[in-house]
Design brief:
Helicase, Ruva Protein, domain 3, homodimer, 2 domains, Dna Topoisomerase Vi A Subunit, Chain: A, domain 2, 4-stranded parallel sheet, alpha/beta
């Protein structure tokens, strides 16, 4: 005999399929939705139903775009410099970069980072597409804006090796002390990278 | 200019409305669903759409039941003793009790705990319904199975005061050392409750 009604357990099971949502969390979410106004669950249902139909991937930058757009709005913007391309792992990294409000170039989404443990090899990433874009867009600078993690560094090194025979400047984001952090609390690796990359004052 | 497509941001907003899901978590869930097979999002959409229609509240025990059931399956089961009623705060507490596999009585869901800070007063709970059930079901024992928190204790004391003129035994779950815990790690309140409630050996 099940203690909970079927309509509830199927929702818990469906929520539980989202990465990062365990069975207890799924129960909590489901119970919250059940107690809330039905419009909340209906609205969520409608957005989920439309999700895949309403979104596609930009054929040039591989950012997420609306189904009815040709290319990314940002790439189509004539004020953005197409000869500068920031290479990021995921579409969300674009948001982080755009929050600065100072970057005037465009983006290229790799679709992940090299991670042999997770079975992600360089050929799974959009590196070939980057190389052809460097040629077709007359790119002058490729900025490797990957995470400061092992996977991020490995990917950056690989992409750089693939671009080294092309007539393009390849740079990457500086590593160093995050702003507002006391020297004594900085970890050793960050500190040694900050020392290596020291700049004239 | 928005960096993310609209179909994505509306899903993030809808997920963000679930209690306990912040904007970053909502983005993570949405992105996971977008990258997964569309059937995952569609299935979740379908269960959410059907949620409120498929579930109702048992008119006797106030547990969650299927729309097509008259009363809770557990209450309808002739092997469950209707003269013993465990009073719990939420439908989920029934699951915890049922996991024991040894309780043979029935349940009564209060629908919360007295918590003046959250604006939950005794009149918001199903205490009147409990009193009338004690009469109609010839209940012999009411077991107060509320949390061992301030709200749980307050609620238990209140329910007990409402039942004291009726011909029914009112008990509550024992407080004491949880099994497997070393004495030296038990908190002071638990320990003093265990001492008060000491039993002959």
């Amino acid at each position: 005999m099940s203690v909970l009604p079927k309509g509830f357990t199927v929702l818990v099971d469906a929520l539980n399929k989202i990465s990062g949502v365990g069975p207890r969390t799924a129960e909590r979410y489901a119970y919250y939705l059940l107690r809330s106004d039905p419009s909340k669950a209906k609205n969520l249902a409608a957005t989920l139903e439309a999700l895949h139909e309403s979104i596609k991937i930009c054929p040039v930058t591989f950012a997420l775009i609306d189904r009815d757009e040709e290319v990314s709005e940002l790439y189509a913007d004539p004020s953005r410099q197409k000869h500068t391309v920031a290479v990021v792992a995921e579409p969300f990294d674009i948001i982080a970069m755009e929050k600065m409000g100072t970057y005037k170039g465009t983006y290229h989404v790799l679709g992940g980072l090299v991670s042999p443990i997770d079975g992600i090899e360089p050929e799974h990433l959009r590196i070939r597409e980057l190389i052809s874009r460097v040629g077709s867009d007359k790119v002058e600078e490729v900025i490797l804006a990957t995470n400061a993690s092992i996977e991020g560094e490995t990917t950056a090194v690989y992409v750089q090796s693939q671009l080294k025979d092309m007539d393009v400047k390849v740079t990457r984001l500086a590593r160093g002390l995050p702003i507002g952090v006391d020297l004594e609390y900085a970890d050793q690796i960050t500190l040694s990278r900050a020392l290596e990359g020291r700049q004239e004052f």
